[in-house]
Write a structure and sequence with these properties.
two-stranded antiparallel sheet, 54% helix, mainly alpha, 165 residues, 4% strand
Length: 165
């Protein structure tokens, strides 16, 4: 079963230190820089795998990935989805949907407020907005909507493989 294989890789490839967990982009990587952003590491793993069936180890690792994301704080690379604060906030929304623990929704909303402030800072610095979905302002706007709706579905990815043609 595919879910069991994915769960096995999630567990086998987790680098756990206390209450936090990270997944490196390459197997065998231990040294060097390990970004905490949706497209590398914990936020993307948590967001992508939060719909796995519940079991103690999976729940513990996903929450530990969320905790690392929280401890790392909002990103300074921008407000977007791919490698920005908005993308990381989706890990919290996914954990909220998985656990129904309001703490994760509060954390998502805190990151959303930072992403909105970052949109404004970037617009002032550049004199214009950034209009791409995954690296620009639109991702922050979608996060705001998701926080209000309590929706954890990552924009345009969740359900893409199961949607009917």
């Amino acid at each position: 079963m595919l879910e069991e294989r994915v769960r096995h890789v999630l567990i086998a490839r987790a680098c756990v230190e206390g209450s936090i967990a990270q997944w490196f982009p390459l197997i065998g990587t231990v040294a060097g820089r390990h970004p905490v952003q949706w497209c590398h590491g914990s936020p993307g793993i948590v967001t992508s795998l939060a719909d796995l069936p519940h079991d103690d180890e999976t729940d513990r690792l996903l929450q530990a990935g969320g905790e690392l994301t929280w401890q790392a704080g909002p990103l300074n690379k921008g407000p977007g989805l791919c490698h920005g604060t908005a993308g990381n906030a989706y890990a919290f929304l996914a954990l909220f949907a998985r656990s129904n623990d309001e703490l994760w929704l509060e954390r998502a909303r805190a990151f959303a407020m930072d992403a909105v402030a970052d949109v404004e800072r970037c617009r002032l610095r550049r004199g214009r907005g950034r209009y791409s979905l995954y690296t620009g302002d639109v991702g922050a706007a979608m996060l705001l909507h998701a926080c209000l709706a309590g929706d954890h579905q990552f924009p345009f990815l969740d359900g893409a493989l199961t949607a009917s043609p």
